[in-house]
Design goal:
single chain, 299 residues, alpha+beta, Ribulose 1,5 Bisphosphate Carboxylase/Oxygenase, Rossmann fold, 12 strands, 29% helix
């Protein structure tokens, strides 16, 4: 094994290679081919399988082709958007600048202090800078959503509400307002509070989509579902406010009176509202007028 034998045939010398020599020669060629591949890099901008062989020197840095929206969609690559100061310019909301009157009024209020009710009412009146008789408002943060109460205020100074007790004429009005066929020309809802007896509720159900969003659908929670037409709540509802949380937040906004009202009357209205909701359900309470800073109220 491993020896070379020479045979003489017809005057010609023929060299025979052993199996081991063939294997070593094959491996040497393989190593040579691999060494050549390491010296080759992908040709930039060349056609097909053309290559550039580097002889000496350094390899040029590999450049990545720019990805355009079309090429990105074709190759499935996600487009990346670089955020620059120029792209964000103009999108930043400017801070609201308060008037000098508001800033002067705000300086009189201690933001961290909880004011007792008599003191809070006086401070709101003092810091109100409107030229007209402003409305006194109360904003409450409660523990849960879904609260709806109709509260009669002892000293109501707001707009008198139009109250209607549901009957057959009311049903005809609602048919016109909803645009039902055969009900005549379209009409409008001309009442602010709708009261109903239990026997009228089945007739009002078809108009729930019309009355519900406006808060006019009678229900026992806000006192608009009455036993009979002569019930006293019909009169009280005309001088009441509806306390209702927002749809997606446990927050209640309500009117408690006018700035021109006596402090005692406003205090009585506020206490009536707080008791109706249940003070234990209230997390925070703020008092303000139409044009004044808010004051934190001690419950």
């Amino acid at each position: 094994m491993g020896k070379t034998k020479t045979a003489f045939v017809g005057g010609v010398t023929e060299e025979k290679i052993s199996g081991k020599d063939k294997y070593e020669k094959k491996q040497a060629k393989k190593r040579e081919d691999e060494a050549k591949k390491k010296q080759q890099i992908a040709g930039l901008g060349l056609k097909g399988g053309e290559r550039i062989k580097v002889v000496g020197g350094e390899l040029p840095p590999e450049e990545k082709p720019a990805i355009t929206p079309k090429s990105a969609s074709a190759t499935g690559q996600a487009e990346s958007t670089e955020i620059t100061p120029e792209s964000t310019e103009g999108k930043i909301k400017k801070a609201k600048i308060r008037s000098k009157k508001y800033q002067h009024a705000r300086a009189k209020v201690d933001r961290n202090k909880l004011y007792v009710l008599p003191e809070a009412i006086k401070l709101v009146k003092e810091t109100s800078f409107s030229k007209f008789d402003g409305t006194l408002e109360m904003h409450l943060v409660v523990r849960k959503t879904g609260i709806s109460e109709n509260v009669a205020l002892p000293h109501f100074e707001g707009k008198t509400k139009r109250v209607e007790v549901a009957d057959d004429k009311t049903i005809e009005k609602l048919k016109k307002a909803s645009g039902q066929e055969g009900s005549g020309p379209a009409g409008k809802i001309d009442f602010d509070v709708l009261l109903a007896t239990p026997d009228m509720m089945p007739k009002l159900v078809p108009f729930a989509k019309l009355l519900g969003p406006k808060g006019l659908m009678p229900n026992p929670k806000n006192g608009t579902l009455i036993k009979n037409k002569s019930e006293a709540s019909a009169i009280e509802s005309a001088k009441s406010v509806v306390l209702r949380t927002e749809k997606d937040a446990p927050v209640i906004h309500t009117v408690v009176g006018k700035v021109s009202q006596k402090d005692e009357e406003l205090a009585e209205n506020i206490n009536t509202i707080l008791d109706a909701i249940n003070r234990k359900m209230i997390l925070k309470a703020y008092l303000k007028s139409t044009m004044s800073p808010s004051v934190k109220l001690s419950i």
